[in-house]
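Good morning C.,

I know you're traveling, so I'll keep this short. The sequence:
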Amino acid sequence: MPQTELKTAVRKMIQVELDAMNYYLKATEAMQDEGAIFNFNLLADEEREHARSFYQIYPGDDLPVFDELLKQAEVSPQLTQSIDIGLIARLNERQALQLAMKLEKEVEGNLRKMATKLKNTEARAVIEKNAESTLIHYEMIATDYARLYGEECD
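The tokens, ready to paste straight into the viewer:
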């Protein structure tokens, strides 16, 4: 993967992780179940750390400091996959969990595709680790969903 393409991909993954963090924080407002709220807050923290890990392997010095990126993400989230903040505000708990599972699966797939294209072993290792963590996020959300609704979500 050429340097410019790597920079674009890593920058996008930083934004995806920050968007996921904001989604989890916003979605807790629609939730009643303390276990699901706890898990979404935990996931928000982990998404922040994923963004930080991508920031650390970013091959350039043209990004603001990480704390500034966090502030920018809080002020103007650019939620990926065409999700608008108004929609998130109207989700109920079930819908929030379903959407979270869908997003985690999409991000995992994108990370795995990106990792296969990388020659830089350090960057590939970070991305593969994040893909594994993203799969764990999906499984955690799916467990909450099954516990709350007695069914699996596809």
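Safe travels,
E.
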